[in-house]
Every structure is written in structure tokens, then in C-alpha cells.
Amino acid sequence: MTEAMDRDVSVNGIHGSAPRALEQIIAAQASSRPAAPASDEGPCLYFGPAGERCDRRAAHDGFCSQHQGGANPIGSRDSKKVMAAAVAIIGLLLPYLIDLLRELARILPR
After folding, report:
1. Are 45 and 62 a contacting pair, CB within 8 Å?
2. Residue 29 confidence (pLDDT) above 80
């Protein structure tokens, strides 16, 4: 009942090909692909004043050659807008804060 069975198990391989032939095929495919530029780091991270994205490719530090240095990266805000928002929030919350302090002063013993 013991029979010797020859099994040819190859995953993602070409039937009947030797491993060295498969390595040659992979090397030929890799050499036929165009090489990506070494300095390409994806799209430029510059956002304009209205939130528009720069369509150039980034070369260094995430920015294209035009936006190197004085760029407006993601997350940066105009200081006037931040100051105006802070004043508005304080102005809205100030009456509630005064009431809270008045109640605390009334409850706590002198």
C-alpha cells in the first residue's frame, strides 16, 4: 500500500521551471521597469491661502522647488485669525466664568 508519489508543489511558479529560471524572469521584469527619480518625495505639501494644493512633486523636505523655505505647510494658521478666534471665545465665556467665580466666593467661607 505504500506508493511513492512525486509531488511538484510550487506557489506562484511556472510549472516545470527551475528556481534559477524564475529568478532570471524576476530580474528581467525588474530591470525593464523605469526607475523612479531618487529625489521624488510625493506631492508638494504646500497649501495656498484658500486651501488649494500645489500640484508639483516634492523634491526636498516635502515641498517643491517653488515652495522651499517660505511655504505654508499643513496645519499652519494666520496669526490674526487665531487671535480673533481666541478673543471671540473669551468674550463668549467670560460672563459664565464671572458667574462661576461669584458663586464660588458665596459658597466658600470667609
Report:
1. yes
2. no
Helices (H), 5-110: 19-32, 79-107
Cα 53 from Cα 67, distance rounded (Å): 12
Q: How far apart are CA 6 and CA 46, in angstroms?
A: 61
Question: The C-alpha cell of 26 is what?
Answer: 524576476
Q: Check residue 58 and give its pLDDT.
A: 81
Cα separation, 87 vs 83, whole angstroms:
6
Q: Is-above-0.70 flag for pTM?
A: no
CB neighbours of residue 46 within 10 Å: 22
The CA–CA distances, whole Å, from 74 to 46, 62, 107 equal 7, 11, 47
- Spatial separation of the C-alpha atoms in residues 54 and 44, rounded to whole Å: 6
pLDDT tens digits, one per residue of 71-87: 455 555 678 888 999 99
Residue from 27, 16, 67, 23 nearest 45 by CA: 67
Which comes out higher in pLDDT, residue 66 or 38? 66
pLDDT at position 9 is 60
